[in-house]
Design brief:
By secondary structure, the chain is of the alpha/beta class. The chain has a single domain, classed as Rossmann fold. It has eight helices and ten strands. α1 crosses α2. The longest helix has 18 residues. It starts with a strand and ends in a 10-residue tail after the last helix. The relative contact order is 0.20. It binds 2-amino-2-deoxy-6-O-phosphono-alpha-D-glucopyranose. It catalyses: alpha-D-glucosamine 6-phosphate + H2O = beta-D-fructose 6-phosphate + NH4(+). Pfam families: Glucosamine_iso.
Length: 260
Amino acid sequence: MKILIHDTAEAAEKDTARRLAQAVNKKPDSVLGLATGGTMTRVYEELVALYNQKRVSFSEATTFNLDEYIGLPAEHPCSYHTYMREALFKHIDIPEAATHLPDGMASHPDQAAADYEAAIHAAGGIDLQLLGIGHNGHIGFNEPSSSLQSRTRVKTLTEDTRRANQRYFASFDETPIYAITMGIATIMDARECLLLATGAGKADAVAAMIEGPMSANCPASALQMHQTATILLDSEAASRLANRAYYEYVHPKGDDSVQL
Ligand code: GLP
């Protein structure tokens, strides 16, 4: 794992966006794995800014999002389809047909999940996968106890995750219980992973991911087995790392400067 610790969340978010843009500049027909959540909002803002400055174009890129809630139509204000459209897709030059999210309204969700996995393969696999992390160490919606060999499938969300995501819904009862998510093995197949975590609330999950045992109890710890995983943190998210001084010695101030 390459662990880059920035002073501020803003610096970590900007670095994440620039790395994504750099990957697309190097390989314009990149297949990108994308993530949602509050952490990603400013990453997408920065990507849109880079696009507006003509420093990156997505016209040849393809995207696959990690997950989508079951039971929310694409047009629902809290669906991940809506999140991605509003945060990124409508602001950039990516063709709509090149953007993919699981179908949360499919009449056969298990089949929709298998079809999604097949579509990723058919596109040649994911070049760069963007990831956030849940307070309980989940990636995508792979909750603790998810098989580290899992593929895209239906998952039941923990109460903890539903409470964390309740802020987007009118009430806890309206917060979906099920989602279709890429599996951990699906994520591990990506040629490169970029995980961004910011804020003190993520510090325990980050420490378990990087320094804990590899365990289904902390799904993100599977990244310890990935050969090209970069973890971008702000100072608060890094605050529980026992070997922080070593990571900062290897990459002072998260410095691993990206040129666009
Ligand atoms: C959701 C998403 C994850 C995301 C996580 C953290 O559950 N499925 O992909 O990483 O929440 O979200 P936030 O960035 O809002 O803390």
